[in-house]
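Action item from last week, closing it out:
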Amino acid sequence: MPIIKIWGGYSKLKKLNSRELAKKANELRLISLEMIDKASGGHIGGSLSAMDIMTALYFNILNIDPKNPKKKNRDRFILSAGHKAAGYIPVLAERGFFSKKLLATFNKLDSPFGMHPDMNKIPGCEMSTGSLGHGLAVGLGMALALRMDNYNSRVFVLMGDGEIEEGTVWEAAMGAAHYSTDNLIAIVDYNKCSMDGLINQVLNIEPIEEKWRSFGWEIRRINGHNMDEILTALSNLPKEKGKPTVIIADTIKGKGVPSIEGDYHWHYGLLSDEQLLDARRKLVGGE
């Protein structure tokens, strides 16, 4: 499948405030759910839990240009938890990287959009991900390269909480602190659930703040569904010069669909017609 063309309907972005961002995130949740419904299944839980963070990044924080997605001084975003692509792809479309009409092809034959993002097919996607644990290391490399080229650009890496059970994450964390990469920001979507069960039962990652701090990182702990807290955490970075920052965002798996919230069984699935209708009512008040 060839790379899809950049959508021509983009205009200069007006940053959204916290109230507008919260509304936008819920609209994008519904688009994600309807996209998954057309595909007869998808990774629902994490796509919904990470949506507020991705919305804040793309509509308020990131220095990016959908008309020029490869501009050298852009900020970078890596969805290291690549299975959350069903949430990420609608964000890119809404931001103007390609036509929203293409979302209907999600996970269909010859579509540029699979269950995991492909940087060779999707404008605005910085890394092909899916196998967990690699995004932070790649982000570290990007951050070092940007520094060597004298750019003030930042690299944001969104990881799942189950993902940080991977050893490669902590190797990258050590490297980032050692090289003082303060233009690297890790974000942990801490929804407390993995595919196989609750995080603290599968492989406990607590005390999470103390772990990151001991590796030399600055810590911010937030409610990952409170836009004011999200914007405060993502603004004025780095938190401390010479140190990478990690934002630990407490979230709810399946956020926005009451019948699946907090249930690890909804790592992947397909809503019933009744559940989708209920989600539509809750998220945007539609029918």
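Closing note: The CA atoms of residues 164 and 170 lie 8 Å apart.
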